[in-house]
Amino acid sequence: MICDNLNVVRSQIKEAAERCGRNPDEIRLVAVSKRMPTEAIAEAHQCGQLIFGENYLQDALKKIEQLDQSLQWHFIGHLQSNKARMAAELFQVIETIDRLKIARALDRHAGELDKTVEILIQVNVGREPQKSGVLPEETKGLIEQIRPFTNLKVRGLMTMPPYGRKPEASRPWFRELKQLSVQLADIGLFEDNDSVELSMGMSGDFSVAIEEGATLVRVGTAIFGTRPN
User: Fold this and answer.
1) DSSP code, position 123
2) Are 222 and 32 in contact (CB under 8 A)?
3) Which domains does the chain have, with CATH numbers?
4) Torsion angle in degrees (nearest 10) through CA of 39, 62, 218, 190
5) CA dihedral over 181, 186, 188, 193, signed as positive or negative
6) 70 φ, ψ to 5°?
7) 46: burial class by Cβ within 10 Å (0-12, 13-18, 19+)?
8) What are the C-alpha distances in Å from 165 to residues 8, 58, 89, 192?
9) What is the arithmetic mean of pLDDT over 87-104?
């Protein structure tokens, strides 16, 4: 089932990219494996999936220790500064940086591990008080503060827009994040300003996200099915 689901999602990614004149190879799939058993992740790996997204550090630790070392892990949950060392140890990419305090802690621990961690800045495009993320107008200042850190690479932006019952409802938020990324790249704030990562779009709206410029889509349910409680 997981292989079949992956093939469907990959086909939808390809179709969405071609629909808007993009190269499908520009878009990478992050299989969101939070709360999923190790066996399900191993099955997805057997079907060619290499990038997985986790929200919970302790849960991720068990999986990462058991699974193939060739897998790449993205942290996509809310990160507390007292968990920064574990995050630096386990993950190649942290997608949810939204505070200087957590960036500073992550940089320090990455340095102690002699490791460079790629990060995305989480932007709260919908300005929802219950959600994490820096406000759009504060994103520039945060990146400027983080850029001097030698063990972090700011690769791009990430967002979780307000929930909409229809995929099309997410389009304005994705478009806003894309526009913000262009503005920040124009003044040279990213690690590679010609190849800025945009992590946006989940199972219900990733095709719309691709049409608006996503380079990373985070898909869980459409691959693994309903998560266990």
Assistant:
1) B
2) no
3) 2-224 (3.20.20.10)
4) -140
5) positive
6) -75, -10
7) exposed
8) 21, 32, 37, 35
9) 97
| Distance, CA of 148 to chain centre | 22
Transcribe 174-195 into DSSP letters: HHHHHHHHHHHHHTT-SSSTTS
pLDDT of residue 123: 98
What does the alpha-carbon distance between residue 195 and residue 139 come to, in Å, rounded to a whole number? 18
Summarize pLDDT for 31-88 with one digit per residue, the tens: 999 999 999 999 999 999 999 999 999 999 999 999 999 999 999 999 998 999 999 9
**Rounded distance, CA 11 to CA 218, Å?**
15
Distance of alpha carbon 31 from the chain centroid: 10
Asked whether the beta carbons of 197 and 4 are under 8 A apart, the reply is no
- At which residue do the structure tokens 């199972």 appear? 203
Q: What is the pLDDT of residue 163?
A: 87
Phi, psi of 81 (to 5 degrees): -65, -30
pLDDT at residue 228 above 80?
Answer: no
Looking at residues 136-158, what average pLDDT do you find? Answer: 98
Q: For residue 49, which of 59, 36, 57 has the smallest C-alpha distance?
A: 36
Are the C-beta atoms of 38 and 62 separated by less than 8 Å?
yes
